[in-house]
Amino acid sequence: MGTVIYASRARALKALRSKSQFGLDECKRALEKTDWDAEKAYELLQGSAQDKADSKAGRAAHEGRIVAFDHLNRIAGIVEVNCETDFAANTTEFRQFCENLSIHIVGAGPKYVSETEITDEDMRRQAARLKMERPGISEQDFDDLIELWYDEVCLLRQKHIVPAFSDKTIEQLRQELSAKLGENVIIRRFVRWEMR
Fold first, then answer.
1. What is the DSSP annotation of 30-48?
2. Residue among 177, 187, 188, 189 at smallest CA distance from 50
3. C-beta separation of 77 from 191 below 8 A
4. 3-class DSSP state for residue 194?
5. Please, which contacts does 83-87 make with residues 24 or more away whose CB atoms are closer than 8 Å?
6. pTM of the complete model
7. Could you tell me how far CA 48 lies from the centroid of its own chain?
8. Structural domains for the chain
9. Model pLDDT for residues 23-63, shown as the tens digit of each residue
10. What distance in Å separates the CA atoms of residue 116 and residue 114, rounded to the nearest whole number?
11. Is the pLDDT of residue 77 over 90?
12. In which band, very low, low, confident or very high, does the pLDDT at 3 lie, cut at 50, 70 and 90?
């Protein structure tokens, strides 16, 4: 009986580590706190990542990487991601995050890093387009459509296109990386070029 429980706990631990990308000890603590419920443990780790990222958000991040990716010499994406130290910028996790992010930018075509970058003019244009397409739209439906538009055009709100991360938004992945590195991680800016 004990061997069966141990094996199922080992499988749960392995699955949680794979899904969350957190360390062995953090995953084990989360599973123990949730009575070995993998879904609750995953949610607990997500909340932990959010808390850690929030606590680091105000710290200066002047190191980092600029990474480029081009697809068939027709579409290219360049992204600048900052962190606090050159040590963190040279970790495998940070480099992979930047590389996957540049691939995502090429594939998903975001227009802004976050909704705070959307200009008043772009917002007015989108609102006018929605009202023209759907005359008499209710305020709640209008707000919902604006939120969907944010999810479409804002990098941090997009679901990652790389299959290994497709269940998470870019912001969730950024928070996880920040928690793992113990540093503030900022996606500073990006550019996407496409041949015409």
1. HHHHTTT-HHHHHHHHHHH
2. 177
3. yes
4. strand
5. 83/181, 83/183, 83/184, 83/185, 83/186, 84/59, 84/60, 84/183, 84/184, 85/183
6. 0.70
7. 15
8. 2-56 (1.10.8.10), 63-114+154-194 (3.30.479.20), 119-152 (no CATH)
9. 777 878 888 888 888 888 888 877 766 665 555 555 678 89
10. 5
11. yes
12. low
Q: Which pairs from 39-47 meet CB under 8 Å and 24+ separation?
A: 41/12, 41/16, 42/16, 45/16, 45/20, 46/20, 46/172
Spatial separation of the C-alpha atoms in residues 176 and 98, rounded to whole Å:
13
Q: Cα angle vertex 167, ends 159, 17, to 5°?
A: 135
> Rounded to whole angstroms, how far apart are CA atoms 47 and 28?
16
What 3-state class would DSSP assign to 161?
Answer: coil
Mean pLDDT, residues 80-86 taken together:
96
Q: How far apart are CA 38 and CA 155, in angstroms?
A: 29
The structure tokens listed for 196 are 């015409």
Task: State residue 189's pLDDT score.
Answer: 97
The Cα 161–Cα 100 span in angstroms is 9
Backbone angles phi and psi of 159, in degrees to 5: -75, 140
Identify the sign of the CA torsion 45, 51, 52, 57.
positive
**How many Cβ atoms sit within 10 Å of the Cβ of residue 15?**
14
Query: Which residue type, as a one-letter code, is found at position 45?
Result: L
